[in-house]
Amino acid sequence: MKAIEILVKEHDSILKMIEITTILLNKEDKTTINIEHVEKVIDFIKNFADKYHHLKEEDILFLEMEKHGMSREFGPIAMMLHEHNEGRNYIRLAVEGIERFKQGDISAFAQIKENLMAYCILLTNHIAKENNILYPMSEQILPANVLSAMSDDFEKSNTNTFENEYYDKYLKLIEEFSNIYLN
User: Fold this and answer.
1) In the structure, what pLDDT confidence band is assigned to residue 28 with cuts at 50, 70 and 90?
2) What is the rounded CA–CA span in Å between residue 69 and residue 108?
3) Average pLDDT over every residue of 90-119
4) How many CB atoms within 10 Å of residue 71?
5) pLDDT of the residue at 161
6) I need a labelling partner for 51 at 20 to 30 A (CA). Which of 40, 123, 159, 178 fits?
């Protein structure tokens, strides 16, 4: 599979979890919301979306694009980096809300929902920009040998995760939650 195809496929998984998260957080009866599921969503975001996916972009794709003439300080790469950091901040605030919620502060659910929903909106728009603008741009400016090496790096990074958690934990979690929330 090509590097950009791998990233787009990961986007599909992230978008599926965004859809699940939206359904999970918008249940009419807030008392039936499974906070453990919310914590698993956060774990997915922190690890699958941020650690496995965003770091491929930040440490490999963006770096190569920069080597081939794109600025990291201005333009599309700068915007994507800014949005990655904005997303991390939403998740940090949601985690703070979860801690308060678990200590009995039911009002903290509003903080959890507000920040996770903001994350979902941000990432949905972010993914559209990457899929439709940044990724096609990268395929135009990066030489074939660089794209090929990136493909190999991305494949290896996905298959060499601790206890194969990329596949055995996170992709299976999407499947499990899809069966609960999307059926």
Assistant:
1) low
2) 45
3) 95
4) 11
5) 83
6) 178
Q: How many CB atoms are located within 10 Å of the residue 61 CB?
A: 25
Type of residue numbered 84: H
Note down the domain range covering 58: 3-181
Place of tokens 């790469």: 77
pTM over 0.90: yes
pLDDT, position 33:
78
pLDDT number for residue 29: 66
Write the single-letter amino acid at 139.
E
Whether residue 171 contacts residue 13, with contact meaning beta carbons closer than 8 Å, is answered with yes
Smallest Cα–Cα separation from 20: which of 3, 45, 51? 45
Lookup: tokens for 11: 């986007």
**For position 34, what pLDDT does the model report?**
87
Q: Residue 116 maps to which CATH number?
A: 1.20.120.520
Number of neighbouring beta carbons within 10 Å of residue 66: 13
CB 130 within 8 A of CB 49: no
Place of tokens 């899929």: 131
**Tokens found for residue 181:** 């929330």
Does 163 have pLDDT greater than 90? no
Residue with tokens 């991390």: 88
Give the amino acid at 27: K
- Residue 164 CB partners (closer than 8 Å, separation 6+): none
The number of angstroms, rounded, from the C-alpha of 87 to the middle of its chain's C-alpha atoms is 9
The number of domains in the chain is 1
